[in-house]
Amino acid sequence: MNDILHTPLYDIHCALGARMAPFGGWSMPIQYSSIIAEHLHTRSAASLFDTCHMGEFLIKGPDAARDLDRLVTCDIASLPQGRCRYGLLLNQHGMVLDDTITYRLADAEFMMVVNAGTTPRDARWIKGRCSPGTYFEDISSCTAKLDLQGPLAASILQPHVAIPLASLKYFAFAKTTLAGADVLISRTGYTGEYGFEIYIAAPRVAWLWNLLLQDDRLKPAGLGARDTLRLECALPLYGHELTEDRSPACAGLDFAFALDKDFIGKDALIAARSRTDEHRLCGLTLAGRQSPRAGHAVLYNGATAGVITSASFAPSLGHAIALAYLLPACAAHGSRVQITTGRVLLDATVSPLPFYTKGTARRPPSAQ
Q1: Of 205, 225, 235, 350, which cross-links 144 as Cys (Cβ 3.0–4.6 Å)?
Q2: Please, what is the Cα angle at 65 between 72 and 195, to 5 degrees?
Protein backbone atom coordinates (compact mmCIF):
# COMPACT_ATOMS: atom_id res chain seq x y z
CA MET A 1 0.00 0.00 0.00
CA ASN A 2 1.32 3.44 -0.90
CA ASP A 3 1.96 5.90 1.91
CA ILE A 4 -0.53 8.73 2.26
CA LEU A 5 0.77 11.99 0.80
CA HIS A 6 0.83 15.39 2.49
CA THR A 7 0.55 18.80 0.85
CA PRO A 8 3.03 21.51 1.95
CA LEU A 9 0.25 22.89 4.18
CA TYR A 10 -0.37 19.71 6.18
CA ASP A 11 1.18 21.00 9.42
CA ILE A 12 -0.72 24.28 9.13
CA HIS A 13 -4.03 22.44 8.71
CA CYS A 14 -3.31 20.34 11.79
CA ALA A 15 -2.39 23.45 13.80
CA LEU A 16 -5.70 25.04 12.77
CA GLY A 17 -7.56 22.01 14.11
CA ALA A 18 -8.76 20.74 10.74
CA ARG A 19 -10.33 17.31 10.53
CA MET A 20 -8.06 15.44 8.12
CA ALA A 21 -9.00 12.44 5.97
CA PRO A 22 -7.63 10.58 2.93
CA PHE A 23 -8.66 11.86 -0.50
CA GLY A 24 -7.10 10.73 -3.78
CA GLY A 25 -4.09 9.37 -1.91
CA TRP A 26 -3.59 12.59 0.08
CA SER A 27 -4.34 13.57 3.66
CA MET A 28 -6.59 16.60 3.16
CA PRO A 29 -8.58 18.94 5.42
CA ILE A 30 -12.28 18.05 5.32
CA GLN A 31 -13.40 20.88 7.60
CA TYR A 32 -12.08 23.41 10.09
CA SER A 33 -15.28 24.56 11.79
CA SER A 34 -18.29 22.99 10.06
CA ILE A 35 -18.99 22.14 6.44
CA ILE A 36 -22.19 24.21 6.45
CA ALA A 37 -20.47 27.28 7.95
CA GLU A 38 -17.58 27.07 5.48
CA HIS A 39 -20.01 26.56 2.58
CA LEU A 40 -22.12 29.60 3.48
CA HIS A 41 -19.05 31.77 4.10
CA THR A 42 -17.82 30.96 0.59
CA ARG A 43 -21.19 31.97 -0.88
CA SER A 44 -21.36 35.24 1.08
CA ALA A 45 -17.71 36.33 1.49
CA ALA A 46 -14.66 34.23 0.50
CA SER A 47 -12.80 31.07 1.50
CA LEU A 48 -9.32 29.69 0.91
CA PHE A 49 -8.90 26.07 -0.19
CA ASP A 50 -5.73 23.98 -0.27
CA THR A 51 -5.71 22.33 -3.71
CA CYS A 52 -2.00 21.48 -3.77
CA HIS A 53 -2.94 17.82 -4.25
CA MET A 54 -3.99 18.48 -7.85
CA GLY A 55 -1.61 17.44 -10.63
CA GLU A 56 0.06 19.78 -13.14
CA PHE A 57 1.83 18.84 -16.37
CA LEU A 58 4.00 21.00 -18.63
CA ILE A 59 3.74 20.11 -22.33
CA LYS A 60 5.61 22.05 -25.00
CA GLY A 61 7.10 21.82 -28.46
CA PRO A 62 6.14 22.46 -32.08
CA ASP A 63 3.71 19.49 -32.07
CA ALA A 64 2.33 20.06 -28.56
CA ALA A 65 -0.97 21.60 -29.69
CA ARG A 66 -1.53 18.82 -32.22
CA ASP A 67 -0.75 16.17 -29.61
CA LEU A 68 -3.14 17.69 -27.07
CA ASP A 69 -5.88 18.04 -29.66
CA ARG A 70 -5.67 14.28 -30.16
CA LEU A 71 -5.64 13.59 -26.41
CA VAL A 72 -8.44 15.79 -25.07
CA THR A 73 -12.01 16.32 -26.22
CA CYS A 74 -11.93 20.14 -26.27
CA ASP A 75 -10.47 22.29 -29.06
CA ILE A 76 -6.84 23.11 -28.30
CA ALA A 77 -5.86 24.54 -31.69
CA SER A 78 -8.17 27.55 -31.26
CA LEU A 79 -7.28 28.15 -27.61
CA PRO A 80 -5.74 31.65 -27.32
CA GLN A 81 -2.68 32.32 -25.22
CA GLY A 82 -3.79 33.41 -21.76
CA ARG A 83 -6.95 31.30 -21.80
CA CYS A 84 -7.78 27.83 -20.47
CA ARG A 85 -10.38 25.23 -21.45
CA TYR A 86 -12.14 22.27 -19.82
CA GLY A 87 -11.97 18.90 -21.54
CA LEU A 88 -11.84 15.16 -20.99
CA LEU A 89 -9.18 12.51 -21.47
CA LEU A 90 -10.88 9.47 -22.99
CA ASN A 91 -9.65 5.96 -23.58
CA GLN A 92 -10.14 4.22 -26.93
CA HIS A 93 -13.59 3.03 -25.78
CA GLY A 94 -14.77 6.60 -25.20
CA MET A 95 -14.74 6.29 -21.40
CA VAL A 96 -13.32 8.98 -19.12
CA LEU A 97 -9.79 8.65 -17.81
CA ASP A 98 -9.95 12.11 -16.26
CA ASP A 99 -11.36 15.60 -16.67
CA THR A 100 -8.80 18.35 -17.13
CA ILE A 101 -8.22 22.05 -17.67
CA THR A 102 -5.58 22.98 -20.25
CA TYR A 103 -3.81 26.37 -20.11
CA ARG A 104 -2.09 27.86 -23.17
CA LEU A 105 1.03 29.49 -21.73
CA ALA A 106 2.57 30.33 -25.13
CA ASP A 107 2.04 29.36 -28.75
CA ALA A 108 3.74 25.99 -28.25
CA GLU A 109 3.60 25.63 -24.45
CA PHE A 110 0.76 24.34 -22.28
CA MET A 111 -0.03 23.44 -18.69
CA MET A 112 -2.61 20.75 -17.97
CA VAL A 113 -4.25 20.44 -14.55
CA VAL A 114 -5.54 16.98 -13.61
CA ASN A 115 -7.11 15.28 -10.61
CA ALA A 116 -4.99 14.12 -7.70
CA GLY A 117 -5.81 10.42 -7.69
CA THR A 118 -5.30 10.03 -11.44
CA THR A 119 -2.10 12.07 -11.79
CA PRO A 120 0.39 9.16 -12.20
CA ARG A 121 -1.83 7.32 -14.68
CA ASP A 122 -2.58 10.51 -16.63
CA ALA A 123 1.14 11.26 -16.86
CA ARG A 124 1.87 7.83 -18.33
CA TRP A 125 -1.08 8.05 -20.75
CA ILE A 126 -0.16 11.50 -22.08
CA LYS A 127 3.62 11.02 -22.21
CA GLY A 128 3.19 7.74 -24.06
CA ARG A 129 1.08 9.39 -26.75
CA CYS A 130 3.02 12.59 -27.40
CA SER A 131 5.19 13.07 -30.48
CA PRO A 132 8.92 12.39 -30.09
CA GLY A 133 9.68 16.12 -30.22
CA THR A 134 7.11 17.09 -27.57
CA TYR A 135 8.49 17.78 -24.11
CA PHE A 136 6.43 16.44 -21.20
CA GLU A 137 7.12 17.08 -17.52
CA ASP A 138 5.06 16.30 -14.44
CA ILE A 139 5.56 19.49 -12.40
CA SER A 140 3.09 18.54 -9.64
CA SER A 141 5.69 18.14 -6.89
CA CYS A 142 7.15 21.60 -7.39
CA THR A 143 3.85 23.40 -8.05
CA ALA A 144 1.41 24.43 -5.33
CA LYS A 145 -2.14 25.69 -5.81
CA LEU A 146 -4.60 27.63 -3.67
CA ASP A 147 -8.21 28.42 -4.58
CA LEU A 148 -9.58 31.72 -3.28
CA GLN A 149 -13.32 31.55 -3.89
CA GLY A 150 -16.23 33.85 -3.09
CA PRO A 151 -17.74 37.21 -4.09
CA LEU A 152 -15.12 39.13 -2.04
CA ALA A 153 -12.19 37.31 -3.67
CA ALA A 154 -11.06 40.21 -5.85
CA SER A 155 -11.10 42.80 -3.08
CA ILE A 156 -9.10 40.45 -0.83
CA LEU A 157 -6.50 39.50 -3.45
CA GLN A 158 -6.12 42.78 -5.37
CA PRO A 159 -3.89 44.62 -2.82
CA HIS A 160 -1.26 41.90 -3.22
CA VAL A 161 -1.02 41.52 -7.01
CA ALA A 162 0.46 43.59 -9.82
CA ILE A 163 -2.40 43.23 -12.35
CA PRO A 164 -5.98 44.56 -12.28
CA LEU A 165 -7.99 41.47 -11.39
CA ALA A 166 -11.17 43.02 -12.80
CA SER A 167 -9.67 42.56 -16.29
CA LEU A 168 -9.30 38.79 -15.85
CA LYS A 169 -12.14 37.12 -17.72
CA TYR A 170 -13.80 33.80 -16.92
CA PHE A 171 -11.46 30.91 -17.93
CA ALA A 172 -8.56 33.31 -18.44
CA PHE A 173 -5.25 33.53 -16.58
CA ALA A 174 -2.19 35.74 -16.20
CA LYS A 175 1.36 35.39 -14.95
CA THR A 176 2.16 38.13 -12.45
CA THR A 177 3.73 38.78 -9.06
CA LEU A 178 2.04 38.51 -5.69
CA ALA A 179 3.84 40.40 -2.94
CA GLY A 180 7.04 39.86 -4.95
CA ALA A 181 6.51 36.14 -5.66
CA ASP A 182 5.97 34.79 -9.18
CA VAL A 183 2.48 33.34 -9.57
CA LEU A 184 -0.01 32.29 -12.21
CA ILE A 185 -3.56 33.39 -11.40
CA SER A 186 -6.56 31.95 -13.22
CA ARG A 187 -10.31 32.34 -12.93
CA THR A 188 -12.11 29.03 -13.42
CA GLY A 189 -13.54 27.98 -10.06
CA TYR A 190 -15.22 24.86 -8.73
CA THR A 191 -17.71 26.46 -6.37
CA GLY A 192 -19.98 28.51 -8.62
CA GLU A 193 -18.60 31.70 -7.09
CA TYR A 194 -16.26 34.38 -8.37
CA GLY A 195 -12.70 33.53 -7.48
CA PHE A 196 -9.17 32.64 -8.45
CA GLU A 197 -6.71 29.76 -8.57
CA ILE A 198 -3.20 30.79 -7.54
CA TYR A 199 -0.26 28.65 -8.71
CA ILE A 200 3.03 29.24 -6.90
CA ALA A 201 6.30 27.39 -6.28
CA ALA A 202 5.65 24.78 -3.60
CA PRO A 203 8.22 26.11 -1.09
CA ARG A 204 6.36 29.46 -0.96
CA VAL A 205 2.80 28.27 -0.55
CA ALA A 206 2.79 28.28 3.28
CA TRP A 207 3.90 31.91 3.22
CA LEU A 208 1.13 32.73 0.74
CA TRP A 209 -1.53 30.89 2.77
CA ASN A 210 -0.61 32.82 5.91
CA LEU A 211 -0.40 36.13 4.06
CA LEU A 212 -3.87 35.85 2.56
CA LEU A 213 -5.50 34.72 5.80
CA GLN A 214 -4.39 37.93 7.50
CA ASP A 215 -7.55 39.38 5.93
CA ASP A 216 -10.34 38.72 8.44
CA ARG A 217 -12.90 38.40 5.64
CA LEU A 218 -11.17 35.26 4.37
CA LYS A 219 -11.56 31.89 6.12
CA PRO A 220 -10.01 28.49 5.41
CA ALA A 221 -12.38 25.86 4.02
CA GLY A 222 -12.00 22.13 3.52
CA LEU A 223 -12.96 19.58 0.92
CA GLY A 224 -16.34 19.00 2.58
CA ALA A 225 -17.55 22.48 1.69
CA ARG A 226 -15.82 22.29 -1.69
CA ASP A 227 -17.93 19.21 -2.46
CA THR A 228 -21.27 20.69 -1.36
CA LEU A 229 -20.51 23.90 -3.27
CA ARG A 230 -19.74 22.07 -6.52
CA LEU A 231 -22.74 19.76 -6.08
CA GLU A 232 -25.16 22.69 -5.74
CA CYS A 233 -23.79 23.93 -9.08
CA ALA A 234 -23.97 20.42 -10.60
CA LEU A 235 -20.25 20.33 -11.44
CA PRO A 236 -19.00 16.77 -12.10
CA LEU A 237 -16.51 14.99 -9.87
CA TYR A 238 -14.23 12.36 -11.33
CA GLY A 239 -14.96 8.98 -9.79
CA HIS A 240 -18.60 9.92 -9.26
CA GLU A 241 -20.25 11.52 -12.30
CA LEU A 242 -17.31 10.71 -14.58
CA THR A 243 -15.79 7.22 -14.64
CA GLU A 244 -14.30 4.60 -16.93
CA ASP A 245 -17.57 2.67 -16.70
CA ARG A 246 -19.95 5.17 -18.28
CA SER A 247 -19.82 7.26 -21.46
CA PRO A 248 -19.54 11.03 -20.91
CA ALA A 249 -22.15 11.37 -23.68
CA CYS A 250 -24.66 10.85 -20.85
CA ALA A 251 -23.22 13.54 -18.55
CA GLY A 252 -24.47 16.73 -20.23
CA LEU A 253 -20.98 17.90 -21.17
CA ASP A 254 -21.52 18.59 -24.87
CA PHE A 255 -19.72 21.94 -24.52
CA ALA A 256 -16.48 20.00 -23.86
CA PHE A 257 -16.65 17.97 -27.10
CA ALA A 258 -15.08 19.38 -30.28
CA LEU A 259 -16.50 16.83 -32.70
CA ASP A 260 -15.02 18.56 -35.76
CA LYS A 261 -11.56 17.22 -34.89
CA ASP A 262 -10.13 13.76 -34.23
CA PHE A 263 -9.37 12.64 -30.69
CA ILE A 264 -8.95 9.33 -28.87
CA GLY A 265 -12.37 7.84 -28.11
CA LYS A 266 -14.30 10.08 -30.52
CA ASP A 267 -15.96 7.30 -32.52
CA ALA A 268 -17.20 5.57 -29.35
CA LEU A 269 -18.41 8.90 -27.96
CA ILE A 270 -20.41 9.64 -31.12
CA ALA A 271 -21.93 6.15 -31.04
CA ALA A 272 -23.00 6.64 -27.41
CA ARG A 273 -24.54 10.02 -28.22
CA SER A 274 -26.76 8.38 -30.83
CA ARG A 275 -28.28 5.84 -28.43
CA THR A 276 -31.68 6.76 -27.00
CA ASP A 277 -31.80 4.14 -24.24
CA GLU A 278 -28.77 5.34 -22.25
CA HIS A 279 -29.06 6.67 -18.72
CA ARG A 280 -28.77 10.45 -18.42
CA LEU A 281 -27.26 12.51 -15.62
CA CYS A 282 -30.11 14.27 -13.81
CA GLY A 283 -30.71 16.38 -10.75
CA LEU A 284 -32.88 15.16 -7.88
CA THR A 285 -34.44 17.40 -5.24
CA LEU A 286 -35.57 16.00 -1.92
CA ALA A 287 -37.97 17.76 0.45
CA GLY A 288 -36.07 17.14 3.68
CA ARG A 289 -32.51 17.34 4.95
CA GLN A 290 -31.77 13.60 4.75
CA SER A 291 -29.72 12.75 1.69
CA PRO A 292 -28.87 9.44 0.04
CA ARG A 293 -25.34 8.32 -0.76
CA ALA A 294 -23.47 7.53 -3.94
CA GLY A 295 -24.40 4.05 -5.10
CA HIS A 296 -27.96 4.07 -3.77
CA ALA A 297 -30.53 2.84 -6.29
CA VAL A 298 -33.23 5.07 -7.77
CA LEU A 299 -36.67 3.50 -8.29
CA TYR A 300 -39.37 4.51 -10.76
CA ASN A 301 -42.75 2.84 -10.44
CA GLY A 302 -41.10 0.37 -8.10
CA ALA A 303 -38.39 -0.75 -10.54
CA THR A 304 -34.71 0.18 -10.50
CA ALA A 305 -34.20 3.05 -12.93
CA GLY A 306 -30.88 4.58 -11.97
CA VAL A 307 -28.14 5.17 -9.42
CA ILE A 308 -27.02 8.08 -7.25
CA THR A 309 -23.55 9.46 -8.06
CA SER A 310 -23.37 12.37 -5.56
CA ALA A 311 -25.71 13.60 -2.83
CA SER A 312 -25.73 15.94 0.14
CA PHE A 313 -27.72 18.38 2.16
CA ALA A 314 -27.49 21.69 0.23
CA PRO A 315 -26.73 24.50 2.71
CA SER A 316 -27.67 27.27 0.26
CA LEU A 317 -31.05 25.68 -0.46
CA GLY A 318 -32.08 24.15 2.86
CA HIS A 319 -32.83 20.63 1.60
CA ALA A 320 -31.07 17.58 0.20
CA ILE A 321 -30.06 17.23 -3.46
CA ALA A 322 -28.47 14.52 -5.58
CA LEU A 323 -27.05 13.78 -9.00
CA ALA A 324 -28.09 10.47 -10.54
CA TYR A 325 -27.94 8.59 -13.82
CA LEU A 326 -31.55 7.79 -14.77
CA LEU A 327 -33.28 5.92 -17.57
CA PRO A 328 -34.94 8.20 -20.16
CA ALA A 329 -38.42 7.10 -19.01
CA CYS A 330 -38.03 9.03 -15.74
CA ALA A 331 -35.48 11.68 -16.69
CA ALA A 332 -37.98 14.45 -17.50
CA HIS A 333 -38.18 17.39 -15.11
CA GLY A 334 -40.95 16.84 -12.59
CA SER A 335 -40.78 13.05 -12.62
CA ARG A 336 -41.28 11.52 -9.17
CA VAL A 337 -38.86 8.81 -8.10
CA GLN A 338 -37.77 7.09 -4.91
CA ILE A 339 -34.29 6.38 -3.59
CA THR A 340 -33.65 3.26 -1.56
CA THR A 341 -31.02 3.69 1.14
CA GLY A 342 -31.32 0.14 2.45
CA ARG A 343 -33.33 1.38 5.41
CA VAL A 344 -35.91 3.79 4.05
CA LEU A 345 -37.30 5.06 0.75
CA LEU A 346 -36.70 8.76 0.08
CA ASP A 347 -39.05 10.62 -2.25
CA ALA A 348 -37.36 12.82 -4.85
CA THR A 349 -38.26 14.91 -7.88
CA VAL A 350 -36.20 15.25 -11.07
CA SER A 351 -35.22 18.91 -11.27
CA PRO A 352 -33.33 21.27 -13.61
CA LEU A 353 -29.59 21.78 -13.23
CA PRO A 354 -27.82 23.54 -11.69
CA PHE A 355 -29.64 23.42 -8.37
CA TYR A 356 -28.14 26.75 -7.23
CA THR A 357 -28.43 29.61 -9.71
CA LYS A 358 -27.26 32.67 -7.74
CA GLY A 359 -23.52 32.05 -8.00
CA THR A 360 -21.18 34.91 -8.91
CA ALA A 361 -18.65 32.88 -10.94
CA ARG A 362 -19.33 34.59 -14.27
CA ARG A 363 -19.96 38.09 -12.94
CA PRO A 364 -17.33 40.85 -13.05
CA PRO A 365 -16.39 42.31 -9.64
CA SER A 366 -18.35 45.49 -10.40
CA ALA A 367 -21.55 43.43 -10.60
CA GLN A 368 -21.10 41.88 -7.15
Answers
A1: 205
A2: 65
